[in-house]
Amino acid sequence: MKTRRIAIISALFLVAGCASYDGSGLLPGKSTANDVQTQMGSPAERLTAASGDTIWYYPRAPQGVHTFAVRMSPDGVVRSVEQVLDMANLKKLVPGTTVTGEVREQFGPPMRITRFDHLQRNVWEYRMTGYSSDPYFLYVQFSDDGVVREVVFLKDMYRDQGDHGHS
Q1: How far apart are CA 104 and CA 97, in angstroms?
Q2: What is the pLDDT of residues 25-60, one digit of tens each?
Q3: Do residues 166 and 115 lie in contact, with contact meaning Cβ atoms separated by under 8 Å?
Q4: Is 21 helix (H, G, I), strand (E, B) or coil?
Q5: How many CA atoms lie within 13 A of 2 on its CB side?
Q6: Rounded CA gap, 86 and 106, in Å?
Q7: Helix, coil or strand: residue 59
Q8: pLDDT tens readout for residues 53-79
Q9: Residues 6 or more apart whose Cβ sits within 8 Å of residue 98
Q10: In terms of C-beta density within 10 A (0-12 exposed, 13-18 middle, 19 or more buried), how is residue 60 classed?
Q11: How far is CA 82 from the centre of its chain?
Q12: If you ran DSSP here, which 8-state letter would residue 68 be given?
């Protein structure tokens, strides 16, 4: 009985270990939606892009600083797998021009959305790293018309100091 229990627990760890954190086992042009589901699990969000592609998002928050986006063609074949919370995508945010749909497609679902009624703003919060591996908070503020009004990128000083007193 004890041997059987150990075998079952070992099998569970083996299956759990097969889930991919970043989709590195997926092959653009070859892997399918089924392969994505098998390797990465269920996405936190699925979005249909203007191009007709489907994007599956895998945020590794709240403590993680990565969101992996798996872009698939309309026929369900993987086009790309990329980590979207990066400085190159941050530079694409243009206050007064970029809108909510573009931010959602570029960064995936935010970690948190906060409403500031007195400012008439919605703020989307993401965690990411800067050019180094230092942790940052990204706050994207939208006016009620869905246009980016302000982008705030703040270093997480608590995490930088060894997580003292920060959960």
Answers
A1: 14
A2: 999 999 999 999 999 999 999 999 989 999 999 998
A3: no
A4: coil
A5: 0
A6: 10
A7: strand
A8: 999 999 986 677 999 999 999 999 999
A9: 92, 147, 148
A10: middle
A11: 10
A12: E
pTM: 0.81
Q: Distance between CA 115 and CA 121 in Å, rounded? A: 6
Q: Length of the chain in residues, anyone?
A: 167
Among 136, 80, 146, residue whose Cα is nearest residue 113: 146
Residue pair 135/142 in contact (Cβ under 8 Å)? The answer is no
Strands laid side by side in the 78-83 sheet: 45-48, 54-59, 67-72, 78-83
CA distance 126 to 136: 8
Q: What is the 3-state secondary structure (H, E, C) of 84-134?
A: CCCHHHHCCCCCCCCEHHHHHHHHCCCCEEEEEHHHCEEEEEEEEECCCCC
- Residue-range domains of the chain with CATH: 20-83 (no CATH), 85-167 (3.30.1450.10)
Q: Both tokens of residue 156?
A: 């997480």
- The Cα–Cα gap between 83 and 77 comes to 18
Q: What is the mean pLDDT of residues 144-153?
A: 97
Residues 55 and 49: their CA atoms lie apart, in Å, by 7
What is the pLDDT at residue 160? 53
